[in-house]
Amino acid sequence: MRMRDEFGAPERKFHRPETGLVLSEGSVIEGYASIFGRADNGGDVVARGAYAASLEAMRAQGRRAKMLWQHDPAEVIGVWDEVHEDETGLWVRGHILPEIGRGREAAALIAAKALDGLSIGYRTVRAERDAKGRRLLTEIELWEVSLVTFPMLPEARVAAKGEDRDGLDWQDIADLFEDARRSLSGG
């Protein structure tokens, strides 16, 4: 889902973390907000390193990506304490503010496994088309990471407490399902 047009305006990518969003200590959450090399439901793929310049600029300016509820800038519900790229994608860890009504609601929904999606709000700085015609995002200006109901990237999820994000290889399982889907659809 895009917020504006292709001329440098903000966009959103919904991602359901494959390991699930973790809620621990009452309000601490973590998970992958974006996974490199995976096509989302809009056909976009984020390249490894796409967030590096943005994350460095934020650090240099003492800023952080915002934690929002459903991409609503009027609904800040917490703070992302750690946002970094690793081999898999964009990893986030933060805490929901229980002093805020929507924060309490979000924590309750995550704990009940009724909500587990993550989504990024960003501006595309550089992109190119890959061999399949998909947009490959090579540089992204990250603005926010939201807790959402329906992520654009199905694997972007909050991780469950105690799950080992390096244990079960969810990416391989997702690839098997994607291969089966393509086989059944003839593509």
Automatic annotation (TrEMBL):
Residues 26-162 form the Prohead serine protease domain. Coiled coil: none annotated. One of its GO terms (molecular function) is peptidase activity. Keywords: Hydrolase, Protease, Viral release from host cell. The keyword Lyase does not apply. GO terms for biological process: proteolysis. It holds the Pfam family Peptidase_S78. InterPro entries: Peptidase_S78_dom, Prohead_protease. This is HK97 family phage prohead protease. It comes from Cereibacter sphaeroides (Rhodobacter sphaeroides).
